[in-house]
Structures are given as C-alpha cells and as structure tokens.
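Support request, please re-run this one:
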Amino acid sequence: MLRHSERLDARTLIANIRSKSQQHLLAISQRNSIGEDVTDELVTRGCQEVVCSLATNNGARLSDFGILHMIKRSEGDSILVEQLGQRSDIPRHLFQQLIAKASDNAKKTIENERPELAGQVRALVTDVTGALQAKFGPASKGYFVAKRNVARQNQHGNLNEKTILGYAQSHKVEEATVGLSLLCALPLDVIERTLMTRTERWC
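Re-run finished. Output below.
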C-alpha cells in the first residue's frame, strides 16, 4: 500500500516515515511520484538502501537540502555517487559538489591502498574526476579537461601568474579559472562565482 496507493497524501507518508521500519521507508522511496517534503524525510531518516533507492527513482523530486544530504551520505559509497550523478535534476553548483566528493573519495582510496604514490595522488584524482565527469554528463566537462591539463603544469612547477595571464589572453577561460583555483587553494566554484561577479560589474 505504501508503494502503490495514490490516496496517501504527504502528511500520511511523513507520519509513516517517522514511525515505521526501514522496510516501510524503502517501499515509500519506490513510489511513482514523491514530493520534496517526503523525500527530505526519507534522506534524513532512511538507511543507505533507502537513499540509494530514492536516488534511482526519477519520480522523486529532490530539494537542494535533500541533494546536499545525499551528497554527504555518499562518502565512501561510489554506487550512490554514480546514481546521483545520473540524475538530470541536480543543479550545476550541487553537481560540482558531488564531483568534489567523488574526488575526495578517490583520493582517500588511493592514499590508503597505495601510500607510496602520495606525490602522484593529485594527478590521479584529477584523472578519476575527469572520468566521472565524462560519465555523468557534459554540463561542465570543459573544466575537468582543463583541470587535468593545468594540474600537470602545476605538478611540473610551471603554473604561475604568468601562465594564468597567458591563458586569459588566449581566451582559455576554463584553464585560467582552474589555474587560479590551484594557486589560491580555493574551490573551483568560488573562483568561478568571483570571476562572474567581476565580469558583471565590468559589463
């Protein structure tokens, strides 16, 4: 009934989520249509199986809160990362956080399993991130191609203000943005928002 009945409204479903077992939550996560109020409760109270079920349900509407909570719960769970990455309703800024989380997971795995490769971890994570981005979709693929190339320049000690200026003068916006992110040790989305704000003021 929890999975198929159309008579159950959001209030009733939320009451069940707060009082029933994880198997009941799993059934609710598989409904054909689920509103944001209900999915917020599921991602907060559901076990990992429930969250993964919700991630693969295209009829479930996810709020920004719900997506952020799922991204936090994806640490160490590459399956959930992939399931979230395949959704078409994730906003670009949250999609970037998902990719960053995937990078962190990959980095930890590499460092734990191959500690002798500590000096190469950044380059390897960049390649993993690029592969994930290519798999998840083209929304910001250019940044990850640029990140791979610029990270190699940085690894060889060739990334500096002059290099970034050269990127800018050649209209290689993605390379310049990634270069600033690496040199300033700031997240890519912070650099991107700053540049966009400056550009709007200049216009």
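The two ends are 57 Å apart (CA to CA). The CA atoms of residues 194 and 200 lie 10 Å apart.
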